[in-house]
Amino acid sequence: MLRIENLSKTYGNGVRALKDVSLEIPRGMFGLLGPNGAGKSTLMRTIATLQGVDSGSIFFDDIDVLNEKHEVRKILGYLPQDMGVYPGIPAETLLDHFAVLKGLVFAEARREAVERLLRMTNLYDVRRRKLGTFSGGMRRRFGIAQALLGDPGLIIVDEPTAGLDPEERIRFLNLLSEIGETAVVILSTHIVEDVRELCTRMAILSQGRVLLSGEPGALVAQLEGRVWRKVVGRSEVAGYQKSMPVLSSRLAAGRTVIHVLGDRAPGDGFEPAEPDLEHVYFAARHGG
Ligand SMILES: Nc1ncnc2c1ncn2[C@@H]1O[C@H](COP(=O)(O)OP(=O)(O)OP(=O)(O)O)[C@@H](O)[C@H]1O
């Protein structure tokens, strides 16, 4: 279990990236959802021991993450938002190199681990190709392979599906879900579907604060009876957005459907709608 308590961080330029953040993250897949600039990467880099905070604490089981960096690095797998690219190096050679850095010093065990991870990420057939020739999806899968070296108990994946085409995204999410059972896996994303499809628990972060956390299904259930829908003209959307909390506005077959939040039926042609995780996300950001 990862326990984050009262974490605060202000950057040198005065931006308060984390404001008293507390979270309990059990084993399994945990989704950290938030818009750009919410503080997700700051939190991920902090857990990954790459930067410090002004106050607060993080414990992974008995390890004091902020003060025992060396211990954390032994059990950590980290896939950063931007993995440094080494375009001229073949995938297998680079993975073997990372494995040495991770402490896999025995050649035979290392060879087995590298082969297993290349097969798992479906890169075995292209293992001799240089990284510079890989597509975005292949590079992401290579990132996962390096993050899984040494069987980490704590895995951090920062915005992994950004820029992937739908097929690669699904392949990548399937890969992640396979590893989510024995480790604490934290996945940061601004894509609601990533969380819906994968995560047993989640939190929403906005402007450095945790707006809510819990199980996606339970959070959706809390909105039961409070979401209303209406088909409107495209030009009317802005007016509704001014006068009521609009959770979403979608084009469906050339018509615009808006969903709004309200404890009572808004009248005026609105009808009850099934809440979904996207509504949870926007309701939280509306303060609902
Ligand atoms: N090194 C830094 N120095 C100053 N400000 C920073 C630094 N890193 C991040 N910030 C600011 O801190 C806030 C949180 O940024 P962070 O990257 O943690 O958010 P995020 O949720 O990961 O967003 P994104 O999805 O855009 O990466 C933003 O306002 C950002 O501009």
Automatic annotation (TrEMBL):
PROSITE patterns listed in its UniProt record: ABC_TRANSPORTER_1 (PS00211), ABC_TRANSPORTER_2 (PS50893)
SUPFAM superfamilies: P-loop containing nucleoside triphosphate hydrolases (SSF52540)
Domain ABC transporter stretches: 2-232
Entry's Gene Ontology molecular function annotations: ATP binding; ATP hydrolysis activity
Family, per entry: Belongs to the ABC transporter superfamily.
PANTHER family in alphabetical order: ABC TRANSPORTER, ATP-BINDING PROTEIN (PTHR43335:SF2)
Name of this chain's protein: ABC transporter ATP-binding protein
Organism: Luteimonas salinisoli
